[in-house]
Amino acid sequence: MRMKNLELRIENSKSSLPICNSKFLIFICVLCACSICQATGLEGMEKSVVMIRGAGQEFDFVTPWKPKAIAQGVGSGFIVGDNKILTNAHNVSNNKYIELQKEGVAKRYLAKVAFIGHDCDLALLAVEDKSFFDDTKPLELAELPGVNTAVETYGFPMGGRRISVTKGIVSRIQVDTYSHTGADSHLVIQTDAAINPGNSGGPVIQDGKVVGVAFQGLRQADNIGYMIPTTVIRHFLADINDGKYDGFGSLGVMLYPGLHNPAYKDYLNVPADQQGIIVIETIMHSSVESILKPGDVLTQIDQYAIDNDGRVEIYGLKLEMSEVVETKQIGQTVELAFYRDGKPMKATATVARNRPVLEFARQYDIAPRYVCFAGLVFVPATRNYLETWGPEWVKDIPFYLRYLFRNSIQLNTDRARKEYVVLSEIMPDEINAYAGEFKSQVVASINGTTIEGLEDVWKAFDKPSEGFYTIMFMGVDRPLVLDAKEAHARQTAILEKYDIPFDFAQGGPQQARLEVQQ
Fold first, then answer.
1. What is the rounded CA–CA span in Å between residue 270 and residue 248?
2. Domain 1-244 CATH assignment equals 2.40.10.120
3. What's the confidence (pLDDT) of residue 191?
4. Which helix (H) or strand (E) holds 510?
5. N or C: which end of the chain has fewer CB within 10 A?
6. Which residues contact 365 (CB under 8 A, 6 or more apart)?
7. What is the spatial distance between Cα 372 and Cα 276, in angstroms, rounded to a whole number?
């Protein structure tokens, strides 16, 4: 698994969620004022490309019982088979309502999400009224286009009623971060065809076939857009064949291009003519944790030789070795060749999700979990929560949270840990007076019991206590102390005062149990 220091900005009609990139600001195309190229030479594409109107509602990750306002947006999609419409995941994330419209047809058709892959920003929609597909033509997928070849982008920028097409040239093919989650990296194709807000989810065409799906563009450059290539699309479509989406996998390993230094190569006893990439860390519980060790030098993955930059030659291009893993589905295997202490070795590794305890990716379509006891609101530490600090969240979040976010893989030594838990908010009451200094701190333990997940929080407060609840926080040398009897006595009044549901999220019934013990 490779991690990058990137700072990107997602900007659309629904939200403005920041991520990190030292050079560019990237936008996801949904809806804002931009110029439109007039459509010419559609060649029947109007029967394949559709407009998508969606209404979504995001979650508040500080006070999770408060839903945000409904927001609407417009995107594009295209027909890829019987009752199948492909689009971007960001067009339909956190959706409450989706409708489709064909060019020249006034009727709007109700649609629903059949499958969604946030890690690759793709979704497949189904339409209840099958007459939608009358007189339509599914589009075929092609292989990767060549650099410096012409492509056309189709869609409904600004939600215009007629399909628009813009022409451009493929300028680059590389692995890069997808703005939707801000953490997942896959192959992207760069083009100078204008990809404007509203084009998202529309097909990019070459010689009558789809070579990509428009999905994001650079805000700090003119006419530089990106599309999701058919290698990623095919992986997504193959994944859902069994009726569920598993996602893209990885090896769960962090790598370092240290063999450029001849002294380092000698230090690791790697032959002078051998290239490869150095293992510096494996993710806890990853599928290679028992196979690879720090200091191992990966030299080959399947039949692909790995160079000193960690790249392989695949699809006629030099790309990161992760692209070989991307050709596999979850549960499939790759063959690894590597050096350890100067000795050549081989092993078989399984491709798995291999996600860190503190998830780097932004999450969607999942209601936030929380526990509220004695006016103290506890939530899992997630990227969504950290981004509530605003556009400059990476530097504005409290020091310990920033330190944990950047280094959680190395810092976590607790194999039972499921997640980190934060005191996100304090609903003021006499029982929690003077507790403000502990807001935004990471919970370490309650009454001596290590907190390894949100479930442990409500279990700790559900446990009868005659004296006090003593809450310790990571990096803090003093406790937050609650009078146990008074905390239970004030619980109902606090929930009613702040309109907090009694039955919710991870605990669900735990709130009722807390009430019974008064």
1. 32
2. yes
3. 93
4. helix 510-516
5. C
6. 93, 94, 116, 118
7. 50
Q: What are phi and psi of 72, to 5 degrees?
A: -115, 150
The whole-model pTM stands at 0.88
The amino acid at residue 394 is V
CB 233 within 8 A of CB 86: yes
**pLDDT tens profile 199-235:** 899 999 999 999 999 998 776 666 789 999 999 999 9
Residue owning tokens 């556009």: 391
pLDDT at 502: 79
Q: Are 422 and 380 in contact (CB under 8 A)?
A: yes
The reported pLDDT for the residue numbered 24 is 37
Residue 269: CB atoms within 10 Å: 12
What are the sequence ranges of the domains in the chain?
Answer: 1-244, 253-350, 371-516
Q: Which of 48, 76, 200, 424 is catalytic?
A: 200
Instruction: Establish whether 266 is a catalytic residue.
Output: no
d(CA 149, CA 331): 36
pLDDT number for residue 5: 33
So what's the pLDDT on residue 159? 65
Query: Where do the H-state alpha helices sit in 373-502?
Result: 383-386, 393-396, 399-411, 454-462, 484-497
Residue for token pair 């990227």:
383
CATH of domain 253-350: 2.30.42.10
65 secondary structure, DSSP code: T
Residue 291 to residue 349: CA distance in whole angstroms: 8
- State phi, psi for 231 to the nearest 5 degrees: -60, -40
CB atoms within 10 A of CB 328: 16
Residue 503: its pLDDT value, please?
63
- 182's tokens: 């801000």
Question: Phi and psi of 386, rounded to 5°?
Answer: -65, -35
Instruction: Report, as ranges of residue numbers, the positions in the chain whose pLDDT lies below 50.
Output: 1-41, 505-518
How far apart CA 317 and CA 334 sit, in angstroms, is: 20
Question: Nearest 5°: CA angle at 14, between 401 and 204?
Answer: 105
Which helix (H) or strand (E) segment holds residue 343: the answer is: strand 343-350
Contacts of 486-493 spanning 24+ positions with Cβ under 8 A: 486/431, 487/373, 487/374, 487/431, 487/461, 488/514, 488/517, 488/518, 489/518, 490/374, 490/375, 490/429, 490/430, 490/431, 491/373, 491/374, 491/515, 491/518, 492/518, 493/429
Q: Out of 121, 184, 429, 456, which one is annotated catalytic?
A: 121
Q: Is 235 a catalytic residue?
A: no
Task: Please identify which of the residues 48, 90, 296, 322 carries the catalytic annotation.
Answer: 90
Q: Is 164 a catalytic residue?
A: no
Q: What tokens does 454 get?
A: 């949100």
